Amino acid sequence: MNKVVPEVQGLTGTGRSYRRGAGKMSQSLAHAMDAEGFGELLQQAQQLAAETEAASELPHVARNLQEIQQAGERLRSRTLTRTSQDAADVKASILLGSRGLDIFHISQRLESLSAATTFEPLEPVKDTDIQGFLKNERDNALLSAIEESRRRTFLLAEEYHRESMLVQWEQVKQRVLLTLLGAGEDGLDFSQDLEPSFVSDVGAPGRSALDSVEVAYGRQIYVFNEKLVSGQLQPNLGDLCASVAQGLDDKNVSDMWLMVKQITDVLLVPARDTLKSRLAVDMQVAFTRQALNFLENSYKNYTLVTVCGNLQEAHLGGVPGTFQLVHSYLNIKLPTPPPGLQDGEVEGHPVWALIYYCLRCGDLAAAMKVVNRAQHQLGEFKHWFQEYMNSPDRRLAPPAENKLRLHYRRVLRNCADPYKRAVYCLLGKCDITDNHSEVADKTEDYLWLKLNQVCFEDDGGSSPQDRLTLTQLQKQLLEDYGESHFSASQQPFLYFQVLFLTAQFEAAVAFLFRIERLRSHAVHVALVLHEQRLLLKASGQSAQLLSQEPGDPPMMRRLNFIRLLMLYTRKFESTDPREALQYFYFLRNEKDSQGENMFMRCVSELVIESREFDMLLGRLEKDGTRKPGVIDKFAGDTRAIISKVALEAENKGLFEEAVKLYELAKNPDKVLELMNKLLSPVIAQVSAPQSNKERLKNMALAIADRYRSQGVAAEKSVDSTFYLLLDLTTFFDEYHAGHIDRAYDVMERLKLLPLSQDSVEERVAAFRNFSDEVRHNLSEVLLATMNILFTQYKRLKGAAAGTPGRPQRSVEDRDSQLRSQARVLITFAGMIPYRMAGDTNARLVQMEVLMN
Fold first, then answer.
1. Alpha-carbon span 768 to 575, nearest angstrom
2. pLDDT at 459 over 90
C-alpha cells in the first residue's frame, strides 16, 4: 500500500482523463479476447494508445501484454492476500490524511529507527562518520522524547487514578460515618449561625446550636473545668451530670445516671493501665457486685411502688421490712398459688417464691427468715444457704457447691417448681443453659439471674460447659442476641443498660451515641468513665468509633474517645466555640498518630473554624500589651498554642489573621515576613477608602509604630524589606495623588533607582540583595519614576515657553539632567538580572524618546 500511494498522488492532476482512457482500454481488451487473431488485437491496442496519448497529458507507459498480465497478477495476489492490518493502514491513512499528516513518510521515519520497539538509545557510531553521527544523535533525541512522553503519560494516568480513588474513598467514609451516627443524609448538616455562650452574659438568646439538654450538660462541664483549673478539690463529674437528669423530668435518663454512678462507684483505685485494671478479677467482681446491687435496689423500688399502688389487694401490714413487702407483693402477683409449688407455705405463700423474691430484692436476711420458718421441709438447703449468706463473694465452698449441683442434677432438674429451680441455680451457679423464663420474665430479671451465676475463678470441680464467665455472658448479650433481640431501636435505654451492667461500657456508649437525641447523654457518660480511668480508648484517631486492637482479649472493645468528642462538638464548635473548648480540654493528655497533642490541634482548628481569634486567644492592645483570652485559663504556656494556631492559619492562606496571631505569640520574624507578602501585591495600587491596600497599609503602620516604640526588631533582611515596602507605599500614594515632586523626593531618598550615571553600578549591585517582594514591584517603580521625569520635563518645557525672561542656561541644564536621568533608568533596567513584566522596557524607551 505504501508504495502505491505516491504513484496515485502523482496522477491526481489528470485523473479524469486517465480513468476515461483506462475504461476504454479495459473494454477493448475484453472485446479482443473474443477476436479471431492477434493482429486485430494489436491494431486496436495501438489505436487506443494513440487516442489516449492525444486526449491527455499523462506520461506514456510503455508496457507489452506480458508486462500488463504480470502487473495484473501482482495486483490480484495483493488483493487476495490483504490482511486486516492492511485495512487498518488504509483507514489510518484516511484519518491522518484528513488532519494533514502523511502516514507513509511517518512510517518510513519510524521504521528507520532500529530501537523503535524498545525505545533504547541507539549505539554510538564512529567519530569519523559525520553523517552517521548526526543521524544517530537525531534518532536518539527522538527516542528520548518518545520515552519521556510515555513515562509522563503513565505517571499522569497513575496520579489521576489515585486522586479518583481517594475521592471515592472519602465519599465512602462519609457514608459510613453517617450510617454509624444514625443521622441520615443530614447528619452533618450543622447550623452555622452565631450564638451566645452560657458562660457569658453577652449574645442574643435563642441563637445557639445547643439544645436545652446540651446546654445543661455544658454548664456542668464548665463548672467541673473551672474547679479543676483553679486548683480546687476536683468534683465528681458523675454527680454533676446526674444533677442534669433531675431537671429533665425523664425517668429513663435519671435511672441511667443512677446506674452509671453505682457501677462506677468501685472502691478500687484504677491502675495506670486501664486494660489491666479492667481485666483484674477483683475489678470484675466489683463491677458485677455493683450491677447486682443496682438491679436488686431497682426491683425493690418497683415492688414498693406496685404494693403502694395496690394497697387493697396487697394487705400491707405487720413489721416493716423486705419480708413483709415481698409477702404483700405476692398477694398481688400470686393471689392463688399455682399447682406444682413444693415444700409448703409460709404465711399463705409458697416457700420458694418467698425465698426467690427476697433474694431478688437483695435482702439475704429476709430470705434466711423464710428458710428458718420452713427449715424442716428444706432439708440440707438451710446449711448451704447459711454458708452462701456468710460468704463475702456470695459463693459456696467447692465441696458444698459440688454437692448442691449433684443434688440439683439428680433431683431438681425436672422439678415442677420454677422458683425452687431458680434458687438452687443461684446458689450453685449451675444449669447455665436454663433461662428460667417462668420467673425471670423481664430482661432485668434475666440479667440479674445470669450475673449471679457468673464465675470468676476456676474451682476445678466443674466442667467448662457448666461454668458461666463474664466474657461468655458479654458475648451472649452483644453478639448472640444483639440489638434486634432487645428491640434496641425502640428501647435504647434498656439495651444500654444491658451492656453497661455487664461491664461493656464502650459498646454501650457507642450504641447510645448513634441515636441523635441521646448523643449528649452518651458523650457525658464517656467523660465520666474517662475521668475515673475506666474507659478503654483506641490508640489512634483514625480508628472506628468502636474497635478492637490486636492483642485485646475477646469481647474487650475500645472507644475512639477523640473522635467521639470531635463528632459531638462539630455541631456547635463554629457557633459556641467557648463551649467546644470546654470539651476539648478533656483531650489535653491525648495524642494522635503523629504524636501531636490533640488539645492544641482541636483548639487550632476551633479558632480557624470560628474565627473568634480575640475571644479565644486574646488580643493585642494599642500599647502592645496582650488582653487574655479564654484559652489562658486552660494552658500555662499560651504562646505554644497561639503559634500553633498561627501556623494553621498561615497554611490555610489566612495571612492577615496569622499576622495578628504571630504578634500575639511574640514572633516578629513571622509577623514581618507575612506582612511583606501581603504588602507586595498592593503597594502599587491606588489607595482608596475600604480597599485592601488601605487596610493592609494601616495594619502595617500600626505594627511599625508598636515595634519602634517597643524596640522590637526582626531578622535584618526581613526588617529592611518591611520598611522599604512601607516607603514604596508612601511613594506610590504621593504619585497617584499627583504630588510629583514629593514622590520624586521619596524615590531620591530611598536610593532604590540610579538617578545619575555614576550610581548605576552601585544600584545594580544593591539590587541583587533585594527580596522577591521588592523585585516584584520593580516594573511599576521604574514606570512611575520615568513618568515622573517625563511629567517634570513637560512641565519644564511649558514653563520655559510661558516665561520668555527665564534664564535659558538653567532651563537647558534641567532639561539635560532629566533626559540624562531617563537614559540612566533605561540603562539600569537593561543591566539588572531580572525579567520584568510585560512591555515595561518598551514603555520606558517610548517615554525616553518623547523627552528628546
1. 50
2. no
- Cell 511649558 sits at which residue? 798
Q: What angle do CA 471, 475, 479 make, to 5 degrees?
A: 165
Residue whose C-alpha cell reads 428460667 in the numeric block: 436
Tally Cβ neighbours within 10 Å of residue 147.
14
pLDDT digits (tens, 9 = 90+) for 245-260: 888 888 999 999 999 9
Alpha-carbon distance 602 to 563, whole Å?
A: 11
Sign of CA dihedral 496, 497, 502, 506: positive
* DSSP states of 682-727: TTTSPP-TT-HHHHHHHHHHHHHHHHHHHT----HHHHHHHHHHHH
* Full DSSP string of 453-486: HB--S--SSS-GGG-B-HHHHHHIIIIIIHHHHT
Residue 411 is classified by DSSP as I
Q: Tell me: the pLDDT tens digits for 323-375?
A: 899 989 988 887 666 666 667 788 888 889 999 999 999 999 999 999 998 88
Dihedral angle, C-alpha 484, 485, 489, 493, nearest 10 °: -140
Angle between helices 655-664 and 638-651 (to 10 degrees): 160
Coil, helix or strand at residue 304:
helix
Q: Determine if residue 280 is left, alpha or beta; phi over 0 gives left, psi from -120 to 50 gives alpha, anything else beta.
A: beta
Residue 356, number of CB atoms within 10 A of its CB = 26
Q: How many other CB atoms sit within 10 Å of the CB of residue 174?
A: 12
Q: How far apart are CA 361 and CA 88, in angstroms?
A: 92
Secondary structure letter of residue 203 according to DSSP: S
Cell numbers linked to 182? 444514625
Matching residue, cell 490480484: 76
Residue whose cell numbers read 494508445: 49
pLDDT at 447: 94
Q: 432: buried, middle or exposed (CB in 10 Å: 19+, 13-18, 0-12)?
A: buried
Give backbone dihedrals phi and psi of 627, rounded to 5 degrees, phi first: -85, 125
The residue with cell 460447659 is: 465
One-letter amino acid at 441 equals D
* Tens-digit pLDDT profile for residues 543-567: 888 988 888 888 889 999 999 999 9
**How many whole angstroms separate alpha carbon 9 and alpha carbon 12?**
5
The whole-angstrom separation of Cα 785 and Cα 821 is 10
pLDDT in the model for residue 522: 94
pLDDT > 50? residue 203: no
Quote the CA–CA distance of 204 and 196 in Å, as a whole number. Answer: 6
Residue 525 burial (10 A CB sphere; 0-12, 13-18, 19+): buried
Query: Hey, is 825 helix, strand or coil?
Result: helix
Do residues 739 and 747 lie in contact, with contact meaning Cβ atoms separated by under 8 Å?
no
Phi–psi pair at 340, nearest 5 degrees: 100, -10
* CA-closest candidate to residue 379, choices 361, 403, 395: 403
pLDDT band at 204 (very low <50, low <70, confident <90, very high): very low
Q: What helix, strand, coil percent values describe the chain, rounded to 5?
A: 65, 0, 30
Beta-strand runs (E) in 573-634: 619-620, 626-627
| Cα–Cα dist 65/682, whole Å | 88
CA-based max dimension of the chain = 152
Separation between Cα atoms, residue 305 and residue 555, nearest integer Å: 37
pLDDT of 102:
66
If phi > 0 it is left, if psi is from -120 to 50 it is alpha, else beta; for residue 100 that is left
Mean pLDDT over each residue of the chain, to the nearest integer: 80
Domains of the chain by residue range: 4-80, 387-455
Tell me which of 334 and 212 has the higher pLDDT. 212
Task: Please list, in sequence order, all residues whose beta carbon lies within 8 angstroms of the beta carbon of residue 184, skipping any fewer than 6 positions away.
Answer: 178
CA distance 259 to 294: 7
